[in-house]
Amino acid sequence: MKGLERHTLDTGDRRESKLGLRTLIADDERLARQGIRMLLEKDCEISSIDEAKSGKRAAELMKTGNFDLVFLDVQMPEMDGLSVLRCADFGGAVIFVTAYDQYALEAFDVNATDYLLKPFTPQRFGQALERAKARLHNGSQRLDARILTALEQIVNRPTYLSRIAVRVSPGTTFVDTKDIDWLGAAENYVELHVGPACHLVEVTMTEIVKRLDPSCFIRIHRSVVVNAGRIRAVQPASHSEYLLTLACGTQLRSGRTYKTAMQRLVSNKA
Which CATH architecture fits 163-266? Predict the structure, then answer.
């Protein structure tokens, strides 16, 4: 199949397999896919592993790939996890994967094992996998109604970021958006300025602005977004521009085309 990344495991392992599970990892994060793959390759009951890095591709493969088990990221480009399930009409076992945040904790039943919250431990992964195997052994792949309800809540919630993942060696760290002073564009990257620290994130300013709460972050220039709660003073400058002073002492100049946004800020208008 064109574009299908299929890796069949060692034949010796398959002879010992009780299930021979054909598995799909659907996640837009490469490192997340690699982590799940590494854990799956240790299990002799997994016969093959395919990958999809978008919701659309996941739905295509689930329609044609004849999979038994799918690790499905809830939030993916093009199609979210719920849309993928509706489109694919998948009859196998599903383990949902989602970013670790308080909203997901509240939405999912913390005792359920049909989902994985990132970052997860090998022990937690094993628990979810064994639960999925048990359903397949028993011939019951029907999703728990509580899981579907939680999935609906996560998919339909406002998509504003509460924190931003930052790649560091050898892994990933997270920056709470409330702690950010301002953001600056750097070609196809964005700089997160948090006090004296600066973190580089591989995302465009246009993309990240869509994910930031507009009641908390104000775009004052095509290359600059400011945390409104960090602004301490605003002074008029030349040519419809303004000079902003932040709590950290940093001074930023607004762009002319953002005059209306600045006037709204200093006039206390919503």
Answer: Beta Barrel (2.40)
Place of tokens 């038994």: 68
Tell me the domain boundaries of the chain. Answer: 7-156, 163-266
Query: Strand 189-194 vs strand 242-246: parallel, antiparallel, or unpaired?
Result: unpaired
Read off the pLDDT of residues 142-197 as tens digits, 9 standing for 90 and up: 666 666 777 777 766 666 888 898 988 888 889 999 999 999 999 889 999 999 99
Per-position DSSP letters for 47-65, written without gaps between them: EEEEEESSHHHHHHHHHHS
**Residue pair 256/212 in contact by the 8 Å Cβ criterion:** no
Is residue 231 within 8 A of residue 244, CB to CB? The reply is yes
What per-residue confidence (pLDDT) applies to 256? 93
> Burial, 12: exposed, middle or buried (Cβ in 10 Å; 0-12, 13-18, 19+)?
exposed
CB 47 within 8 A of CB 68: no
The dihedrals phi and psi of 68, each to the nearest 5 degrees, come to: -95, -35
pTM: 0.53
| Residue corresponding to tokens 């011939």 | 139
Per CATH, the number for 7-156 is 3.40.50.2300
DSSP H or E run through 82: helix 81-88
Q: Which residue shows structure tokens 């800020």?
A: 265
**Residue 236's pLDDT band (boundaries 50, 70, 90)?**
very high
Cα–Cα distance, 252 to 248 (Å, whole number): 12
How many alpha carbons lie under 13 Å from residue 237 in its C-beta half-sphere? 16
The angle subtended at Cα 255 by Cα 249 and Cα 261, nearest 5°, is 90
Nearest Cα to Cα of residue 103 among 61, 158, 144? 158
